[in-house]
Predict the 3D structure of the following.
Amino acid sequence: MMSLHYTFSSMGLRAVTESQKPRPVFFNLAKIQMPVGALTSITHRITGVLLAFAIPFCIYLLDLSLQGPPGYDRVVAMLDDGLVKEAVIVLTWALAHHMLAGIRHLLSDIDIGSQLPAARRSAWIVNIGGAVVALLAAGALL
Amino acid sequence: MLSFIVFFLFHFVVDPPHYYPAWHDFMMSSAMSIGTGVFFAALLAHAWVGLRDVIMDYVHAIAFRTGLLVLVGFSLTAIGVWVVRILWVRHG
């Protein structure tokens, strides 16, 4: 049986046979590229952790907004702040990306789009779709 | 969770609550408070599964891992209690 090795090239991670394996191996760290699916996957994790940390802040705003007219006005003023708006846009991107990547993952669990070409295409759709939603949120808020 | 978020955003587009009474009555209606409660229950359960997986993948020292898991579990439980208080104790 032929053993396969993995090598980084301009095409990203590639499987090659022993004889094709370039030697000696020099890793140019600046040139190592992640396959798009790996980028989608790690971003799914990062956005998930980010969203989890956002939960208490969101509930704090909900709590304050329901404590009476002064609290409500304070929340409205806070959400009108430029820095808070930027945070909301980042969190909107995180939520959109996390949801799209989660749906992609569920679909591949039931064998929809789990072959490599389709998986790469859907990974691009997720990454771009998240950015598009973030731009829409920026357009609506700024 | 997705359908709740879409519904919530849709409500803010077609009938945004501009004043406190409108917002309070909207959130405290029985349909909305139950929906919000179910949403946060699902959200916190999902946060637990996700954070647990991340911790178990990256934190291998058993004492540190256990400590982090206890901290996350305690925090998420406290947040759940907070939500119940907002929806059904303090303002209900």
Observations:
- The interface with chain B takes residues 45, 48-49, 51-52, 55-56, 59, 62-63, 65-69, 72-73, 95, 99 of chain A (CB under 8 Å).
- Chain A has four helices and two strands.
- The mean pLDDT of chain A is 88.
